[in-house]
Amino acid sequence: MANTVLERGLARAAEESRAGWAAPASTATASAPGAPRIAADRRAMTIGGVGSASAVLFVLVLVGGVFGWSSVESVPLGEARIPGWVLGVMLGAFAIAILTTFKPHLARFTGPVYALLEGAVLGAISRVYENQWNGIVVQAIALTVLVFATMLLLYATRIIKVTERFRRIVITATIALMVFYGISLLLSLFNVEAPLIWDAGPIGILFSVFVVGLAAFNLALDFDLAEKGAKAGLPKSYEWYCAFALMVSIVWLYLEILRLLSKLRD
């Protein structure tokens, strides 16, 4: 979802990288007045490094998820309630996500914190869904893994190509959806809900299918983001930046699949 700003950040980092740490040490040093800054870590990011950073973040998501899951009281089927602390943690995670988006070099520190907070929120939400629809969480996780693997295969084989047109369409649709979600949230404060969209009827199900598809296409943008960063020779710290972007998309995908499955079960 944050691909627009993330790509701008990577482009900016690439320029700094070429001017700074990639410059000959004999002519550009960190101590020379007016000289380009040389990054402390001269190693370049790799796709494998992005995978390793992503694995760490998702382990932390699971750790947070266990806490969030256990925090929801066991009550009769269909009566589970989300704990009051979830909203505060969710806002904290959102603030960290915004900070990471605009300060990508901090991702190696903010990414793990975001993963723990978001994991706690996901755990609590998942427990509520599970209490309402038994077995739905396992199904949502399995489908999320399946969609991720499918998109990775389609991207790797270039069946899906991330062109400028493809990128513009996905980013525009994602921004429009986020605006719609924001307006819907504000309206819900006044007990006004968009008709049919959130219902379990045909229109509501088709809407959720569309959103799941959009989240899946964002994964392709994330794969392209990591590939571009590796080719540009960005500093190794940007592996965490790309891993963070990937985690955001997968979390979004999982939540939308969870919502879709709940509609199909109603």
What proportion of the residues is helical, as a percent range? over 70%
Number of separate strands:
0
Number of helices: 8
Helix-strand makeup class: mainly alpha
Strand content: under 5%
- Distance from N terminus to C terminus (CA atoms, Å) equals 28 Å
Q: Please summarize the sheet with the most strands.
A: none
Global outline: globular
Poorly predicted sequence stretches spanning 5 or more consecutive residues: 15-41
| Gyration radius from CA atoms, angstroms | 20 Å
What count of structural domains? Answer: 1
Mean pLDDT: 83
Instruction: Give the H and E element order.
Output: HHHHHHHH
Write the layout of secondary structure elements.
Layout: H1 3-19, H2 47-71, H3 85-102, H4 107-132, H5 136-156, H6 164-188, H7 202-232, H8 238-265
Helix pairs in contact: 1-7, 2-4, 2-8, 3-4, 4-8, 5-7, 5-8, 6-7, 7-8
Summarize the structure.
With 266 residues, the protein is an all-alpha fold.
Properties at a glance:
single chain; 266 residues
How does this model look, in words?
With 266 residues, this protein is mainly alpha-helical. It has one domain (3-265). It is 72% helix and 0% strand. It has 8 helices and no strands. It has helices at 3-19, 47-71, 85-102, 107-132, 136-156, 164-188, 202-232, 238-265. Helix 6 crosses helix 7 (202-232). 35% of the residues are buried.
